[in-house]
Structure formats: C-alpha cells, structure tokens
Amino acid sequence: MKPLHTSVSAASARLILTVAACALSQMASAQSWQPTRPVALVVGATPGGSLDLTARLLQRIFEQHKLVPTSVVVLNKAGAGQGLAWEYMQERGNDGHAIALGGPNLASNPILGAHPIGYRNVTTIALLFDDYTALIVRAESPLKSMRDVVERLRKDPGALSIGVGPALGGGAHIGAVVGLKAAGVRIPDVRFVVYKSAGEAMIAAMSGEVDLAAGTVANYPPQLAAGRIRVIGITAPQRLGGAMANAPTLREQGIDGIFTTWRSVIGPHGMGRAQVAYWENALAAAVKTDEWQKDLARNFWTPNFTTGPAARQYVEQQGKLFREIFTELGMAKQ
Question: How far apart are CA 16 and CA 305, in angstroms?
Fold first, then answer.
C-alpha cells in the first residue's frame, strides 16, 4: 500500500504545481497587458452633459497622470438610453481598447424595451460614484417635509403633481418612486408630469405649475442658495455636505427609500481578465486624484469605487429593483 500512497502524493504534487503555474501565468498576463493603440471611451450623451463631462474628466486624468500609455478619445454616441453607445463599444471588439460609461439604464433599458443591451451583455469593470435624487418644492409651498407629501398621497395618490425629466423611467422619476413606494404610497396612481429636463421640472415647481419636482442633487444649489426652493428629501443614506448639509434624507424622516443614479465603467461582453484588471487599476488610480475628488464634491456625488464580484452583484440587484418597479407601474415591456 505504501507505493500506492507515494504515487498518489506525487500526482497531487504535480497537480498543485500545474495549478500554481497557471495562476502565476494569469497574474503575469494581467499585469503585462496594456493598450497599444488609442482607446475609445464611449459616452451615450451629447457633449456638455454630466455623462460627457465625467468621460472627459477621466480622459484628462488618464492622459495627464500618464495612467494610460496611449491617447484616450471620448466618442459621443447619444440615443436609445445610451444603448447606441454600448452597441458601438461592442462593435469595436473586446480587446480592451474600447470602454464606456454605464449607469442605471443598463438595468432599465431591456425591461422598458428601449434597447436590448443591458448589464448582462457587457462587462462591469467598476462602479464610480453615487448621484442621489432630491425632491424640492417652491419656497412658499405649504409642503414642509416629505411627511407632509406622504400624508397627502396616502389619502389620495393623485392629490399632488410631481415634475420629473427627461422621461418616465429615468433617474428622477424612479428616485421619487422609490421614496414614495417605501412610504407606502400607491405609486401607479401618483401624478407625474414629464418635462424635457430636471431644470424645467424645477422651474415648473417654482412657478406652482406642479407641487414638487425631483432631480439629481446638483440641479438645485443655486436656487436653494437664492431662497427660491426648499429641499424636502434626498434619497441618500445620510446627509450630503456643502450647500446640501441642511437638506434632510428620506431615511431620517422615517422613509427607508434610497436610490442613486450610479455611474460605472463597462467593457464589451467577453472582455478578458487581463484587460479588466488593467482598467480596474487605471480607474483605481484615477479616482484618487485631486481633480476627481474636487469634481465629486462640486457635483455632490458620493464616491463608491467598487470592482469585481461586489460591483457585478450590485448591478444585478439594480436589475431586480427596476423590474419590480416597472412591473408595478405597468411599464415593463419584457
């Protein structure tokens, strides 16, 4: 029996050495790959918006800090809820030379039928930050808090009008829905009024055309400072800083409604581990720079750099959340 025992041990040792060699080879490959030609950073928006500005900030940081050995070119491919940008990224191939900005539309597009490409069809490289929703009223509104809003809407879900932009199913709309749903309001009966942008929805609230409006936080500091509006609730887990330091969260008003228009960086489906690791490392360095941190603070964005399984699990959970909401609202197409 002893020779048999010796033979099994030797085989086990060879297996261990083989596995170790493969692991070392994969690590070496991940560390050695880098772009060898210009990189396309594709953004599903026209120039000048927050998505485009985020992409161009990353471009500057990559190049100025020499985090990428080649040039990075921002390509604007607006349309279909960013779906055209992701389609273009896929067409460029999965060798690491084409990446794109992502966000909640990766979860919502396939459900709404806006575009077939969703989070299951791309490679999630990293989450970047959280962009929370604020609900606002005009300064002289009788609605003093989200409790006032909820009390009215529990009695009659159509009692108040809420302005959102640029479309139903967008971040402003879903941010308000998440908060109201958590408060026990029957959301299919709530009156949402759609405007071209969150800015237009805010103007409508200021004029009394609608009772309140929802949009990402960065829309509101100037009008808040001028005393024209009041922020009655933010979908963040804790208060934000700066001009929003006095704005209450929904949670502190007894409403466990948290929602974020998160931003991510994605790659094409089937991107190799070496390419993913490279971009994880480049992004990890980029988000530590002063330029990035200052931009987050200026826009009231909350850092949430996450990679690997945790990032993919988060996006998967967002997909389940959106399906539940859109099904309840009767908006799910698939």
Answer: 35
What single-letter DSSP state applies at residue 132? B
State residue 85 phi and psi, 5-degree precision.
-65, -45
Yes or no: say if 69 and 37 are a contact pair by the CB < 8 Å rule.
Answer: no
140 shares its domain with 248: yes
Residue 323 has a pLDDT of: 97
pLDDT of residue 31: 58
Amino acid at 268: P
Q: Which of 92, 81, 165 minimizes the C-alpha distance to 119?
A: 81
Which of the listed residues 253, 272, 300 is the one where a domain comes to its end? 253
Q: How far apart are CA 221 and CA 229, in angstroms?
A: 9
- Tell me the C-alpha distance between 231 and 179, whole Å: 14
Percent share of the chain, pLDDT over 90: 89
Beta strand spans in the chain (E) = 39-43, 72-76, 98-102, 122-130, 133-138, 161-164, 191-194, 212-216, 229-234, 263-268, 302-307
pTM: 0.87
Query: Could you say which of 232, 253, 274 is where a domain stops?
Result: 253
* Distance between CA atoms of residues 229 and 178, nearest Å: 22
For 159-179, write each residue's pLDDT tens digit: 999 999 999 999 999 999 999
